[in-house]
Write a structure and sequence with these properties.
There is one protein chain. The protein is of the alpha/beta class. It has a single domain, classed as Alpha-Beta Barrel (TIM Barrel). It is 33% helix and 16% strand. It has helices spanning 30-51, 68-71, 111-120, 132-136, 147-167, 186-199, 217-224, 237-241, 285-295, 317-341; strands spanning 3-4, 55-56, 75-87, 92-104, 124-130, 140-141, 172-176, 205-209, 247-250, 269-273, 304-307. An eight-stranded parallel sheet has the order 1-11-10-9-8-7-5-2. Strand 3 and strand 4 (92-104) form a beta hairpin. The radius of gyration is 20 Å and the shape is globular.
C-alpha cells in the first residue's frame, strides 16, 4: 500500500556529465563510459534503497536525454539534418534531427542497461521509454507526412523494445508523454491508440507519465501563462481511464492542478507527484504526506503510488538525494497513519496478509487545499 517511485531522471555525477544541465555531453568514452554509466546507476539504486523507494530506476544514467537516448538506436533518422521546430506546441524552439525514411530498430537499444540494473536492483525495477506522441514532438518529419502515422511507426519499435525489457525482468515500463499536456485533443483521437500499440502483449505493469515539464525557464514561463487552475488533465484523463494502461503519473506538488482531476482515474493506479522538481527547496516528510493525504480524497490507498512531479536531472545531486529521502519518509508517515486507523494494514508495501480490500476509516480533513491557490507572481 502506497509504494514509492520516481517519475524519471536523476542528476548525473560530475565525473560522468556536467551537473545540473540537460543534454550535457558525456565526460567519458568507450568502455570507460559504459563502466561510468553502470557505476552511476548503481549509486542511485543504493540511494533509492536507503531512501525507501520501492519501485526503482536508473534515473536515465545511461542516456543524455529521455527521448533521444532511445532514438540514437533507431535507423531512418538523419542526425546531420537538423531542423528548427517548435516543441510542445511551440512552447520553445530546438534543433532536432529529421526522420528521412522508414524507422527501424536493428537491435535492442536499452537491453544491456536493463540487464545491468536487474542484476543489482533489490526491489521492483522500472524502465522509462519516450511515448510515441512525445517522440513526434521532439523530432522533425520528412517522410511520414503526419504525426499519427509517424507515432504509430515509433510505437511498433517501442513495443519490440518493451517486450525485450519485460523479458529481462523489468517490473514496470513507463512511457513518458509530456506532449499529452500540449496536444490534449489528440490524446483520445490517436495518442491512446499509439500507447496501446506500444504496450501490446506486455504482462508487466505499464504506466504513462504526463507532467508540466522540467523546472527549466521555458516551462516555468508557460506555467505562469496557464492561469490559476491547470485543467489540461481533464481533457484526456477519461480516455486514459478507459485505456489498457495500468498506471497514470501526474504532477501535484506545489502545482495548480485541482486534485479532483484524479476522480476520472477511478480504474487506474495513480502516481501522485508529491515532490516539486522545479525548486531546490527540499520538502519535509510532513509536506509529502500532506500532498498524498489530500489525494486520498479521490484515490483509494491501494491505488496510490507516491512519486515525483517529473525528473530531477537539472537539480544539484544533494538536493535530489534529500528529496528522495523526503518522498520515502513522507509515504512511510502516511502508511503508519493509515495502519493506525486500520490495524490490519501493513506499514510497508507488499507486507501483511493478502485478500479482500480492507475498510479504511476516513482521514481527518486534509491540510492542503483541494483546489490550487492563486498563482504567485
Amino acid at each position: 500500500m502506497i509504494e514509492t517511485t520516481i517519475a524519471g531522471s536523476l542528476p548525473k555525477p560530475a565525473w560522468l556529465a556536467e551537473p545540473e544541465k540537460l543534454w550535457a555531453p558525456w565526460r567519458l568514452e568507450g568502455a570507460a563510459l559504459t563502466e561510468g554509466q553502470q557505476d552511476a546507476a548503481l549509486t542511485w539504486l543504493k540511494i533509492q534503497d536507503e531512501a525507501g523507494i520501492d519501485i526503482q530506476s536508473d534515473g536515465e544514467q545511461f542516456r543524455r536525454h529521455f527521448v533521444h537516448g532511445f532514438l540514437e538506436g533507431v535507423e531512418g533518422i538523419d542526425w546531420t539534418r537538423m531542423t528548427t521546430m517548435g516543441i510542445r506546441d511551440n512552447r520553445y524552439e530546438a534543433q532536432v534531427p529529421t526522420v528521412t525514411g522508414p524507422v527501424t530498430r536493428p537491435k535492442p537499444v536499452h537491453a544491456d542497461s536493463a540487464r545491468s540494473l536487474r542484476r543489482h536492483a533489490t526491489r521492483k525495477l522500472k524502465f522509462t521509454l519516450p511515448g510515441p506522441m512525445t517522440i513526434c514532438d521532439t523530432i522533425a518529419d520528412a517522410h511520414y507526412g503526419s504525426r499519427p502515422a509517424m507515432a504509430m511507426a515509433f510505437a511498433e519499435l517501442l513495443n519490440a523494445e518493451a517486450r525485450e525489457l519485460q523479458a529481462l525482468g523489468v517490473d514496470v515500463i513507463q512511457f513518458d508523454e509530456p506532449a499529452f499536456n500540449a496536444f490534449m485533443a489528440d490524446v483520445p483521437t490517436w495518442g491512446v491508440d499509439c500507447l496501446h500499440r506500444a504496450i501490446d502483449g506486455l504482462t508487466c505493469k505499464t504506466a504513462v507519465h504526463i507532467c508540466y515539464g522540467y523546472g527549466i525557464q521555458a516551462n516555468l514561463d508557460w506555467k505562469r501563462s496557464l492561469g490559476d487552475v491547470w485543467r489540461q488533465y481533464e481533457a484526456f484523463f477519461p480516455a486514459l481511464n478507459a485505456s489498457r494502461i495500468d498506471q497514470v503519473s501526474l504532477e501535484c506538488a506545489d502545482s495548480h492542478v485541482p486534485l479532483s482531476v484524479m476522480a476520472a482515474l477511478r480504474d487506474k493506479e495513480v502516481l501522485v507527484g508529491a515532490i516539486n522538481v522545479a525548486t531546490t527547496e527540499v520538502e519535509t516528510p510532513e509536506k509529502v504526506a500532506a500532498t498524498l493525504r489530500a489525494a486520498l480524497e479521490y484515490v483509494d490507498p491501494e491505488r496510490l503510488v507516491a512519486c515525483t512531479n517529473c525528473g530531477m536531472a537539472p537539480l544539484p545531486r544533494p538536493v535530489a538525494e534529500a528529496k528522495l529521502r523526503a518522498l520515502g519518509a513522507g509515504a512511510a508517515l502516511l502508511r503508519r497513519e493509515l495502519a493506525g486507523r486500520c490495524p490490519g494494514l501493513p506499514t510497508r508495501p507488499g507486507a501483511g496478509p493478502t485478500g479482500g480490500r480492507p475498510h479504511i476509516p476516513p482521514l481527518p480533513a486534509a491540510p492542503l487545499p483541494l483546489e490550487p491557490p492563486a498563482m504567485a507572481p
